[in-house]
């Protein structure tokens, strides 16, 4: 994708519908925009037991799985580094704080995020489940010290935890 021009500005919505989220590109290589928050995305699953009761799993830290995959790879892929994080950012942008999909794009982003999480849990757990829930913990990254040294505490090191609704998924099994 090229930098903005008159044609891309005019057709950006139609172009984005085809290109995003799978083929997103940007020019941050040349002008990086550092993250101001860290987001830890975790997932848990549910299945219905034979007696009809819900069986919940514990939380699995999907972000930690991504970090480990990048840290232990000589040549980590862009996908391993950014897929989950970018899916969350797009979901949040299209849903705000109410988790309701009001547009086709929002529904697509919800499905994309849900499918990434479900596939990763299925690969990690090897157990049956038919619903998934995500939890996103957002922590601010403190600004650097004015003298260029290490980050300094700002007194605002709080974090925010957001629980997404339970989503049905195609039953995943061993």
TrEMBL record:
Pfam family for this entry, one: DUF5819
Annotated InterPro entries: DUF5819 (IPR043857)
Protein name: DUF5819 family protein
Organism expressing this protein natively: Streptomyces ovatisporus
């Amino acid at each position: 994708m090229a930098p903005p021009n008159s044609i891309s500005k005019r057709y950006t919505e139609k172009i984005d519908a085809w290109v995003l989220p799978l083929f997103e590109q940007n020019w941050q290589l040349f002008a990086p925009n550092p993250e101001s928050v860290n987001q830890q995305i975790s997932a848990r699953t549910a299945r219905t037991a034979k007696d009809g009761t819900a069986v919940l799993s514990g939380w699995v830290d999907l972000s930690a799985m991504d970090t480990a995959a990048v840290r232990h790879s000589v040549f980590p892929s862009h996908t391993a580094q950014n897929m989950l994080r970018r899916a969350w950012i797009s979901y949040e942008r299209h849903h705000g704080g109410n988790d309701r999909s009001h547009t086709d794009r929002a529904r697509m982003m919800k499905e994309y995020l849900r499918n990434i999480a479900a596939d990763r849990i299925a690969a990690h757990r090897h157990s049956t489940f038919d619903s998934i829930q995500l939890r996103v913990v957002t922590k601010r990254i403190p600004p650097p010290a004015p003298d260029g040294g290490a980050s300094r505490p700002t007194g605002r090191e709080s974090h925010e935890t957001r629980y997404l609704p339970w989503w049905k998924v195609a039953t995943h099994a061993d």
